[in-house]
Specification:
Elements: H1 24-35, H2 44-57, H3 63-73, H4 75-90, H5 95-129, H6 135-159, H7 161-185, H8 199-202, H9 208-230
Helix pairs in contact: 1-7, 1-9, 3-5, 3-6, 4-5, 4-6, 6-7, 7-9
Length: 236
């Protein structure tokens, strides 16, 4: 990727719903807030997911590691969507309850779509850098970890929804800090223009650094949403 200074102004009006898109100043404040906030105390289950990723892709952030994280990040929302449709069918004769359940489904779908944008952006950045990918690290491993996470997410949601939301909050907290740490450790990204491949749906940013800050902030919003849902995990 050619390193140049881009003086364009960010356009931050997303086509698709999702977390708010921030200005350049707000993104810098968001980074500082994340770096100044301790990580959550991760459960043993969360650590069991993080350790294989760190082992395979390294403890520090990278575009290939971020792509792996985004493949996994979609999983709980897919599991909740599946459980939601089952609940809508079960409570279809109780229209008010069914409507509230369906609203949760819509939220899960929007969050899943937001994570999908993150994945597409990471894959685009990987391609632009010409980074090599192999079958084990970029096909088999993501599938295996996602398969595990998906079934854990829906099983926890079935048994005790609060646990499923907590696990997702931990994952999103880990992603938020990993993105912001990566930006802080790679100041040269301030001078790499956002290629804007998905600007129509995600917004265009001044630099790749700001693009990654926005993604990190998205993860924070997902985390806070899951923590909020822990207070009322079951829809009544």
């Amino acid at each position: 990727m050619t390193v140049t200074i881009d003086h364009r102004t960010a356009t931050a009006a997303p086509v698709h719903p999702g977390p708010p898109k921030l200005s350049r100043e707000e993104l810098r404040r968001a980074e500082a807030e994340t770096l100044g906030t301790p990580r959550m105390k991760y459960s043993l289950l969360a650590q069991l997911m993080f350790k294989p990723v760190d082992l395979l892709y390294g403890k520090k952030g990278s575009f290939t590691k971020f792509a792996m994280l985004e493949i996994i990040a979609r999983v709980p929302y897919q599991a909740w969507e599946r459980m939601g449709y089952w609940a809508v069918h079960r409570h279809r004769t109780r229209s008010t309850l069914a409507k509230r359940v369906f609203e949760r489904i819509v939220e899960a779908r929007e969050d899943q779509d937001n994570e999908q944008f993150h994945l597409l952006i990471m894959e685009d950045l990987i391609d632009r850098q010409g980074l090599r990918r192999n079958w084990l690290l970029h096909r088999a491993a993501p599938w295996a970890i996602s398969f595990f996470y998906y079934h854990v997410s829906w099983l926890l949601f079935l048994v005790h929804p609060k646990w499923s939301y907590r696990l997702n909050a931990e994952f999103e907290d880990h992603a938020e800090h990993t993105y912001m740490d990566f930006v802080a450790e790679n100041p040269d990204l301030e001078f790499v223009p956002d290629p804007g491949t998905y600007a129509d749906g995600y917004g265009r940013y001044r630099s790749v650094a700001d693009l990654l800050r926005q993604i990190g902030h998205d993860e924070r919003v997902h985390k806070l949403d899951s923590l909020e849902k822990m207070a009322a995990p079951r829809i009544r």
